[in-house]
Amino acid sequence: MHQHTLAGEIIHKGVGLHSGVNTRVRILPGEPGSDRYFVRVDLPNSPIIPAKIATVNQTVLSTQLGTDEIYVRTVEHLLASLSAMGVDSARIEIDGPEVPLLDGSAQIWTDSIAAVGLVSQSVGDESAPIVIKEPISVHQGDTFVCAFPAPETRFSYGIDFDVPAIGNQWYSFSLSSNLENTENSFVTEIAPARTFGLLHQIEYLQKSGLIKGGSLDNALVCGADGWLNPPLRFANEPVRHKILDLVGDISLLGKFPVAHFLAYKASHNLHIQLAKKILEFC
Ligand SMILES: [Zn+2]
Fold first, then answer.
1. Please, which residues bridge with residue 66 across strands?
2. CA of 251 to the centre of ligand 1 (A)
3. Comparison of pLDDT for 177 and 66, the residue scoring more
4. Which CATH class is domain 136-281?
């Protein structure tokens, strides 16, 4: 069978949202069948961290892979871009603990992937697709994530914020079956949606020593009277960003299950809990 990797290399530098640390990411074509994995090139012996559900070790405000000593944080936007654009294997070298947030969206990653293009690779036997035969769900309070049997991979999301500028938003997006076409809808509909936050929560998080790299240049910030840094790229940019995060987290299954994912007010923690349950039952 055939898989795909990048036809060239991609390099970007920037600040990490939570750590505030500047890092350089260099994405190289992966060996056939090697899947997507990170390499902490700044650490002794350059340890490898596979982009798999089994390596998730923290989900507070972003998804972190590895161990308490050797980890890479905020992997979701980059992994969503690679997986949604059909990059099955990639070696992602990083010289620090967190993937740069760039402009807060995945657009710079998807533009770069489209620019270098993909190449086909021969690999061994095809592993079986993950098919959801019965609904699988996880929930916490009034928030939930489910996977329903469906003929194609689709992501639907709802959010509900008590600020008029966001309010109640729902969006649904089907991952194109034609992954070799880089003009698929992930690139135009989901990747440009930026990270967002509420002003009062941001002040609290910064006082707690979190989101050290956040700024009005890399995240949309919403106050009681509206957005601090408009214009938005889409009227419903926040819910589209939640789909971006969900796509990135579900990509840690290695390949996208054929299923309809439905989430409401969920978090990285709940996305990962659902993915673990899928691994257990499918
Ligand atoms: Zn995000």
1. 71
2. 14
3. 66
4. alpha beta
CA-based radius of gyration for the chain: 18
Q: Give the pLDDT confidence of 220-230 residue by residue, as tens digits.
A: 999 999 999 99
What are the structural domain ranges in the chain? 2-122, 136-281
The reply to whether 2-122 and 136-281 are identical in fold is no
Cα first-last separation, the chain: 22
- Report the distance separating Cα 163 and Cα 50, nearest Å: 38
Residue set of the binding site for Zn(2+): 77, 241, 245
Q: Residue 180 pLDDT more than 80?
A: no
Query: Phi/psi of residue 171, each to 5°?
Result: -150, 150
Distance (angstroms) between ligand 1 centre and the Cα of 246 equals 9
Rounded to whole angstroms, how far apart are CA atoms 234 and 136?
A: 31
Q: How far apart are CA 22 and CA 102, in angstroms?
A: 11
Alpha carbon of 80 to ligand 1 centroid (Å): 10
Active site residues: 268
Angle of helix 237-250 relative to helix 76-84, nearest 10 degrees, comes to 80
Q: For the segment 14-62, what is each residue's pLDDT rounded down to a tens digit?
A: 999 999 999 999 999 999 999 999 999 999 999 999 999 999 999 999 9
Binding residues: 77, 241, 245
How close is the Cα of 64 to the center of ligand 1, in Å?
Answer: 12
Q: Are 104 and 211 in contact (CB under 8 A)?
A: no
CATH class label, 2-122? alpha beta
pTM: 0.96
Q: How many CB atoms lie within 10 A of CB 162?
A: 8
Structure-token pair, residue 86: 């059909």
